[in-house]
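hiii so um. not sure if this is the right channel but i have a protein structure encoded as tokens and i wanna go backwards to a sequence. like what aa goes where. can anyone help
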């Protein structure tokens, strides 16, 4: 699990979109998180994997922008933005385990051949009966 220090991303408060009554025009509860992938302390292979992903939140300059406005409080939106950043980086760092080729056992091969011959026998019996 990779953690990102606070000094590597910036949080900016802004007004949230959508319905919220009179309070929405006064309070800056939404958060913009900006994370420069190229200037971060992440390993080079992980930077390349993040930059090569087709995510629309990554700009051409290699800056990841996450907008959090789900919650009513600024603090909750900050936590949500940082959590989403960590989830994205950790998802990109996942390397699937190497798959090793296996061979079918002799018994499973024999069962397969038996069922094939049984199906063939059933299909042969469907033909015309000759007397």
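sure thing!! here u go:
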């Amino acid at each position: 699990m990779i953690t990102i220090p606070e000094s590597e991303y910036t949080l900016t408060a802004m007004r949230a979109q959508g319905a919220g009554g009179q309070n929405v025009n006064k309070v800056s509860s939404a958060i913009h998180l900006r994370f420069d992938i190229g200037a971060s302390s992440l390993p080079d292979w992980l930077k390349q994997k993040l930059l090569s992903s087709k995510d629309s939140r990554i700009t051409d300059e290699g800056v990841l922008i996450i907008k959090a406005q789900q919650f009513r409080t600024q603090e909750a939106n900050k936590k949500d933005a940082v959590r989403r950043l960590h989830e994205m980086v950790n998802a990109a760092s996942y390397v699937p385990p190497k798959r090793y080729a296996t061979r079918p056992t002799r018994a499973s091969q024999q069962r397969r051949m038996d069922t094939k011959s049984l199906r063939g026998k059933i299909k042969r019996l469907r033909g015309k009966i000759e007397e």
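oh and The chain has three helices and three strands.
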